[in-house]
Design brief:
Layout lengths: L1 H4 L11 H36 L3 H4 L1 H24 L1 H21 L3 H19 L2 H8 L5 H29 L3 H5 L1 H15 L12 H22 L4 H24 L13 H31 L4 H7 L2 H17 L4 H22 L9 H24 L6 H28 L5 H21 L11
Helix pairs in contact: 2-4, 2-6, 2-7, 2-8, 2-10, 4-5, 4-6, 4-11, 4-18, 5-6, 5-10, 7-8, 7-18, 8-14, 8-15, 8-17, 11-12, 11-18, 13-17, 13-18, 13-19, 15-17, 16-17, 16-19, 17-18, 18-19
């Protein structure tokens, strides 16, 4: 599978075989750094709180600040790359992320740690907003599905394996190493990026500064709303932030329809398959985000396993993704992506039903098979679905499509986390109910994916 990604054929666009291999390594390393962050840091929060002598409610901001800044900046970095070039924005993101990681590892107190996490969040946004788009410049169209399948696998694997890796790191070292280990990997990626990423000329054009501000307020307000709901904040505060986010969304859409240099060209959503795949992305990532929050409570709170054991119980999910993601990406170059995505979501739904059913029926080992099915199904869903989102957009708008994809993913993850917190706060709420909620969201995603099968396939290569 990977060998075929780097084969050269007459008429191929993109990079040559060896340069293609190194450029892919850069994007994979950078994406892993940015995606692994949140899962690893979440596991480290209790240890970090104790070491720094701060309340857990304040320590939570070490994770929230990164997620907030990253989510708020995704669309702006994607739009900026259309003017200055994707490789410049992507490489600058790597520099910011690595610098922020070094500063966080050396921070003597919470205040400086939070400041460096803001720097990391900016770097993470620049990386995550452009990963899929870069693959369209690195690979020829005949390999786009495989390449985006690889990216989907990396993202999904990073999200699923973050708790596992965090548990292993903390079992061997103190919390600063959670950040310090990013630095050497980041330096390697920066060095390679300057050498091998495809260069692009500067382009003339304006930047939609009002749209960028609105997108920051829109996404930032949403993340803060979910954070307040998820951590027991006052409902009035959360409601006010939610209203602010919705108002900014409405003004943002109004602005994008009327400006000549939109931050996000809304013409992207005129393609039915793009719009449907975007909806499915939100639903599926909300389901996965809810499951990732609920399962640690199930393992450690109700089944009484240690943090390291809980981390190991997560392992079948990412391992299954490693198998299914590349296979699904290869098939997406030949088959209808919506059909493959629907099949993957069906398997994911079956796994989630198993987790919900068995969560109150026996020991933790019973959940290994359903978790494995979730990973297999999600890998078969995500790669074709991402391929359809990126392939439906014109090449000139691939950075915008990539930014939209990253924003939808972040939106779903935040929404899933908040929904679990809300369910568990109910008088009759528990972890099992949260898992069934995740299964219900997976069912909705499956239904939308099946409905789009009647829509014509729209894959754009130029």
């Amino acid at each position: 599978m990977l060998k075929r990604l780097f084969e050269e054929r007459p008429g191929d666009t993109g990079l040559g075989g060896q340069q293609r291999r190194l450029a892919t390594l850069v994007v994979v390393l950078a994406t892993l750094l940015a995606v692994l962050d949140l899962g690893i840091v979440n596991i480290a929060l209790p240890t970090l709180s104790t070491s720094l002598g701060v309340e857990e409610s304040r320590a939570v901001w070490v994770a929230t600040s990164y997620q907030l800044v990253c989510a708020a900046s995704l669309l702006s970095f994607a739009a900026l790359s259309r003017l200055v070039g994707q490789w410049r924005v992507f490489t600058s993101g790597l520099v910011l992320y690595s610098l922020g990681a070094l500063g966080a590892a050396l921070a003597p107190g919470l205040e400086l740690l939070l400041a460096w996490r803001v720097v990391q969040g900016l770097g993470g946004a620049a990386i995550l907003s452009l990963g899929p788009s870069l693959y369209r410049n690195i690979f020829p169209p005949r390999l786009l599905g495989r390449a985006i399948g690889l990216n989907a696998m990396v993202v999904a694997f990073g999200l699923a394996s973050g708790p596992t890796l965090g548990g292993v790191v903390l079992s061997l070292a103190d919390w600063p190493w959670v950040f310090a280990l990013n630095v050497p990997v980041g330096l390697v990626a920066i060095g390679l990026a300057w050498r091998v990423l495809p260069a692009e000329p500067w382009r003339r054009g304006g930047f939609d500064w009002p749209g960028a501000l609105l997108s920051v307020l829109m996404m930032g307000g949403f993340v803060l709303t979910m954070e307040r709901l998820g951590h027991g904040g006052h409902y009035l505060t959360a409601g006010g932030l939610g209203v602010l986010s919705l108002l900014c969304l409405a003004v943002f859409v109004w602005r994008q329809r009327r400006t000549s240099t939109p931050l996000v060209p809304l013409s992207l959503f005129e393609a039915p398959r793009f719009a449907s795949a975007s909806t499915v992305t939100v639903l599926a990532f909300t389901a996965q985000g809810a499951a990732f929050v609920a399962l640690p409570f199930l393992y450690q709170g109700e089944m009484g396993v240690s943090p390291l054991q809980a981390a190991l119980l997560f392992t079948p999910w990412p391992l299954a993704l490693l198998v299914s993601g590349p296979v699904a990406g290869r098939l997406a170059d030949k088959q209808d992506p919506a059909l493959l995505a629907a099949g993957g979501l069906g398997l994911f739904l079956f796994g989630m039903v198993g987790l919900g059913w068995l969560s109150a029926a026996g020991p933790a080992v019973y959940l290994v098979i359903p978790s494995l099915l979730c990973g297999l199904g999600y890998g078969f869903f995500q790669a074709p679905n991402n391929r359809e989102i990126m392939g439906s957009a014109p090449l000139s708008l691939s950075a915008s499509a990539s930014g939209v994809l990253a924003s939808l993913r972040t939106f779903g993850q935040c929404l899933g986390s908040a929904l679990v917190a809300l369910v568990m706060a109910l008088p009759f709420g528990n972890v099992t109910l949260a898992l069934w909620l995740s299964a219900g969201l997976a069912l909705l995603a499956l239904l939308v994916s099946v409905m789009r099968l009647s829509q014509p396939v729209q894959i754009t290569a130029t």
